[in-house]
From TrEMBL:
Residues 1-24 are annotated as: Disordered. It comes from Pisolithus tinctorius Marx 270. It comes from the Eukaryota. This is Uncharacterized protein.
């Protein structure tokens, strides 16, 4: 490992003859010296080498020493001694500045850290006090609970809960607000609204082999296809026609709702119906809403296979032609006694 760098070579380096036998105290208190204290020293330096009014710091003293080393008549030995002293004083100034900065920063950091962690420390102390209080309360409570009390508590917890009768369970079930209780009639307003919706609906039976109206086609595609079919029968002299809703049934049927009864009747009319179904394509058909009714006391001699029988029933009862789609016996005639 290399040693420290060699010191600079200075010629005629040695002690002065006059100071060779004097102590430091005698030199400082020399009665013949013009500079006897720090005040006279500052006055002297302010006249030649320092700025008057500035504080005397190691940095300023090092500057003054560098200026003094450049004075005329100073020997090389003395100049080297002055410069060496100036460098050491400047290092002292640097150390002092660093120390002051470190002290100031440390004080600020300490203040900031204390201010930051004080609330957390307070919370920790508060939580610790609460835990201590809880532990004390628990110990006090446990000291008052006897073994008999504990056995009684366990027996109470293990006691079987009696079963609830099925009747009580049904009675305690909250009713469904959307469910209509059995035996109650619908309100007239609800019945009218429901009937109006049915009048606006059209049931489409697309057939099992339809290329678009099937369960594999997306809902958006089906809606677009039906809208195009509606546009094919939209006429200037016809009613305003808008598709309000569409529902695909489990049997592949499609139930659409239009904006008015007139629009639904327009689609069901003979010329428009064929155009609409042709635009849908395939074997699509429009199914009318049908209702099953029971006719009591119908003569057993009635021929239900003849279409004229249905038309005669419609005429005799003032029913529009085509309203009765089919008729059949409840009991098979072949099984009559």
């Amino acid at each position: 490992m290399p040693g420290p760098p060699p010191a600079p070579r200075v010629s005629n380096l040695g002690k002065a003859t006059r100071s060779g036998g004097l102590s430091l105290e005698e030199i400082v208190n020399d009665p013949d010296a013009e500079i006897k204290d720090s005040e006279s020293a500052r006055l002297f330096l302010d006249q030649l080498y320092t700025i008057q009014g500035e504080p005397t710091t190691p940095e300023h003293i090092s500057h003054a020493l560098f200026y003094i080393s450049q004075a005329k008549g100073v020997s090389n030995t003395l100049r080297s001694a002055i410069r060496a002293t100036a460098y050491l004083v400047r290092d002292l100034a640097t150390s002092e500045i660093a120390e002051s900065i470190t002290k100031a920063v440390s004080e600020r950091l300490e203040t900031s850290v204390v201010a930051a962690i004080s609330p957390q420390v307070a919370k920790i102390l508060s939580a610790s006090e609460n835990l201590t209080k809880i532990n004390e309360d628990a110990e006090t409570l446990s000291s008052h609970i006897t073994e008999k009390d504990m056995k009684t508590f366990i027996a109470t917890q293990n006691r079987a809960i009696p079963p609830t009768p099925y009747r009580d369970a049904l009675a305690s079930t909250p009713p469904n607000p959307n469910q209509i209780p059995l035996g109650k009639r619908l309100s007239p307003e609800y019945a009218k609204a429901h009937a109006a919706i049915k009048e606006r609906q059209i049931l489409i039976d697309p057939g099992s082999n339809h290329h678009l109206l099937n369960s594999t086609t997306s809902r958006e595609t089906i809606i677009d296809h039906i809208k195009q079919a509606l546009e094919s029968v939209d006429r200037i002299d016809g009613p305003d026609m808008q598709l309000k809703s569409i529902a695909q049934l489990r049997n592949n049927g499609i139930l659409i709702e239009l904006n008015s009864q007139e629009a639904a009747a327009w689609i069901k009319a003979a010329p428009n119906k064929e155009t609409f179904l042709a635009r849908l394509g395939g074997e699509a058909a429009i199914k009318d809403r049908q209702y099953n009714i029971v006719i009591p006391f119908l003569p057993i001699t009635t021929d239900t296979e003849r279409p004229e029988t249905l038309r005669d029933m419609e005429s005799a009862n003032n029913i529009p032609q085509g309203s009765i789609s089919q008729i059949k016996w409840i009991k098979d005639p072949a099984k009559r006694a």
